[in-house]
Structure formats: structure tokens, C-alpha cells
Amino acid sequence: MMSGEEMKALLLRRARMVEEFLPSCVGGDMPPRLRDSMLYSLQAGGKRLRPVLCLSCAALFGLAESVVLPFAAAIEMIHTYSLIHDDLPAMDDDDLRRGKPSNHKAFDEATAILAGDGLLTDAFGRMTAVDLPASRVLAAMGEMARAAGSTGMVGGQEWDMIYTGMPPVSLDELRRMHAMKTGALLRASCVCGALLAGAESIELQRISRYGAALGVAFQIADDILDVVSDTETLGKPAGSDAEHGKNTYPSLVGLDESRRLAQEQARHAQEAIASFHGPEAEFLRALALYTVTRVA
């Protein structure tokens, strides 16, 4: 059994690996202001959870971190683009992100939009740099495109906008929205790592279930933190969900039930990969629990 400290050490090591690689993902002949804007958000810190999941699920099937790193970094580029656009006045209208002014505040709205566009588009080019069989890379790119697109993250953001300010939605509607907006990219990060490593179909199904449950647990924890934490800790305005009239787990079922649901989903994630053994499987199971202990 991997201890919490061992899990955090590996999480930090892989996050740092991604951090060190990210600056190389933005280059070429582009307007300096656009480059600065892209790097401003890409290097703003964060948990780097999505690329770490990609690296870890690839390692679970014996694929070296260094081989997968360009693809994992590209996932972070996609995630960063989504944060830049989510913060825009037309979306969530947030002035802070990770304790710093949002991209459109540090630069301007047009540059922020273009920075997001650049990160998203360049990410798929970065994925092609992975030195693996083309069939694996193509399958992983397709998986990520579906997760990030209109039936995944983008569609989930649209549901979020539709539901904002509405009377309480049903729990099923909330689950659908979060499965698309947050869960799809987290699940795909896991599946892409396994695909790149050549995992078998039954193994991919288990990894997919792990990622889906982890995504739900992560979102519930985020909803709880918006209620119980503060702006300095979050790096973004605390209480903004309620201020904007968003439907969240605490607003629908309360804090205690939200905590119970988060723990339940973390257990589902652990159970999904119960048949996997070794340090990488232990890391993924410990990570699922860590996702929700921060709000226990």
C-alpha cells in the first residue's frame, strides 16, 4: 500500500516534469504579445492533474514517462485554453485565476481569446511529436478531441451557462453537465495514457471507469471548496458559484451529502482498478482518495 506521502511525492515529481516541459510547447514565429499571453496562463501553476494522470496510466502499462510527456503536456495546453476562455466576461467573468489576474485582465479580451485558440490548436500538433506507433497516437488524439469538444468539455460549459441563474436542476442534470465539463477531460487523460501504452480493450474499460469516477469526485470536491475555502487558498474568488447563481452539489444536496458522494465516487474509482497491481496502481488508488480528503 502506497502511503499518502509517497503518493504526494510522485505526484509532485511528475507535475514538475510537466512544468519544466511546458515552455517548449510555445514557440515559433508568432506575435510576442500572443506568446506572452499563452505562456502567462500555461506557466501559472496548478495541480497538473490531467497530464500526471496521462503519464501515470501509461506507466501502469509499462510505458516510460519521457515518451508520453509531449502528449501529456498537450493535455495541459487544452486544459489551460479552457480556463482562459471560462474566465472571460462572456463566460464566468472571473478576474482571478491561480492567485493572479485572469488572462483577459493581464492582457485584453481579444488576446485572451486568441491565446486560448492558439493553445488548443497547437496542442494537437504537439501530440504528433510522440514517438509511438501512429495507430496508438491517432486513437489517443481522437479520444482527446471527443473529450474536449462539443460532446465533452465544450458542451458541458454550454450546459453550465444554460443552468446558471436557473432554479435548481435535477441531480441527473448536474451529473451530466459535470461529466461533460470536467469529467470528460479527466477520464480521457487516463484513457489516452493507456491507449498510448497499447492497453487491451478490457483494461481500457477499467481505466475509463476509474477516470470517470475520479472526475466526479474531483468536481464535487471543487464545488465544496468554493463554499468552505477562501480566495487566497483557492487562487480564485471563493463563493463565486453562489454569486453567479450556479447549480452545484452543495446547493442541491448540502455539504454533508456532497462530502459523502465525493467519498463514494473515490471508492468507485479505486474499485475500477482493483485488478491492477504494483506501485503505479497503488499511486492511482491513493490519488483517488487524495482528491476528496482535502474536503473531508
Describe this structure in words.
This protein is mostly helical and 296 residues long. The protein has a single domain (4-293), classed as Farnesyl Diphosphate Synthase. It has 15 helices and 2 strands. Strand 1 and strand 2 (100-101) form a beta hairpin. Helix 9 crosses helix 10 (201-228). The chain is globular, with a radius of gyration of 18 Å. The model has no long low-confidence stretch (mean pLDDT 93).
Largest sheet: 2 strands, antiparallel
Shape: globular
| Terminal residue distance | 21 Å
Major β-sheet strand ordering: 1-2
> What is the CATH level 1 assignment?
Mainly Alpha
> Into how many domains do the coordinates divide?
1
The residue ranges in which pLDDT falls below 50 over 5 or more consecutive positions are none
Q: In CATH terms, what is the fold-level topology?
A: Farnesyl Diphosphate Synthase
Mean pLDDT: 93
How many helices? The count is 15
Please provide the ordered H/E string of secondary-structure elements: HHHHEEHHHHHHHHHHH
How large, in whole angstroms, is the Cα Rg?
Answer: 18 Å
By secondary-structure content and strand pairing, the structural class works out as mainly alpha
Strand content: under 5%
The helical percent reads over 70%
What is the name of the CATH superfamily? Farnesyl Diphosphate Synthase
What is the number of strand segments? Answer: 2
CATH architecture: Orthogonal Bundle
